[in-house]
Amino acid sequence: MLVELLPTSASNQYICQVPLNLYNSPACEELATQAGSGRHLQVVSNTVSDRALQVRLCEDGYIAWLLQENLATLRPTPYQYQATTLSRSEIEQRLPAIISFVLAAMEQPNYYLWGGTLGPNYDCSGLMQAAFAASGIWLPRDSYQQEAFAQKIPLEALMPGDLVFFGSEKVNHVGLYLGENGYCHSSGQESGRNGIGIDRLLGEGDTISQSYWQKFWGCGRVMSNYRVYI
Predict the structure, then answer these.
(1) Which residue, 5, 6, 122, 145, has most beta carbons within 10 Å?
(2) For 40, phi and psi rounded to 5 degrees?
(3) pLDDT for 158-189, tens place per residue?
(4) pLDDT at 142
């Protein structure tokens, strides 16, 4: 069994020593998310395929599949991951750095990557998670999870650093509000762009902005650091 290839961990948790790709099935054909160096993960169970092991990322609770060839890059840790408790005032102090992160990411050559969280290529929620994580704030992985986690606020209460959500039957897209009706997000080629850009709310802007506005879902404010109880 692949689990036998891992060294023993007293906490059943491991630290990634190199950036890793994680997949959405044991076939490992489609990227689900990525884990940077220093992230914590744990083995979900002894259920494995012939080439991958199911793991849970501790910072956001995300479950995905890790290739056998990457098991040797994991280091066992004797202690369990503990999320830092943050107040809203502490988060507010970090919002300028979060906004700077997405704007800097936009200036790098990039394209939309489903499952991308490490850059330079991101998906929409991956960009949001990476921007907040760079300032020590964890969000859930996917856009619909981020919408459920954030405090709902009315459109007229939007402030720079808040999240804006889009979708039809459920949330499937997210961006970071910059102020003056602009928001930054990573969007795919089918939406008219392939990468990170700035669009407009309230039906302003070009056809891409107007297309997203037609799918506007709501707004959210990050009030705390995400906590996973494992």
Answers:
(1) 122
(2) -100, 140
(3) 999 999 999 999 999 999 999 999 999 999 99
(4) 98
Burial-class residue 208 by CB neighbours within 10 Å (0-12, 13-18, 19+). middle
Give every residue of the chain whose pLDDT is below 50, as ranges: none
**pTM value?**
0.95
Structure tokens at 166: 């889009």
Helices first, then strands: H and E counts in the chain = 4, 13
| Sequence-separated (6 or more) residues with CB below 8 Å from residue 90 | none
113-136 pLDDT, tens per residue? 999 999 999 999 999 999 999 999
Residue written as tokens 């995400």?
226
- Look at residue 39 and give its three-state secondary structure: coil
- Residue 209 CA neighbour count, 13 Å, CB half: 14
Residues 117/34, Cβ–Cβ less than 8 Å:
yes
How would DSSP label each residue in 67-123?
EGGGGGGEEEESS---PPP--HHHHHHHHHHHHHHHHHHHHS-----TT--SSSS--
Beta-strand relationship, 151-153 and 216-221: antiparallel
Give pLDDT, residue 51. Answer: 87
Cα separation, 89 vs 169, whole angstroms: 33
Largest CA distance in the chain: 56
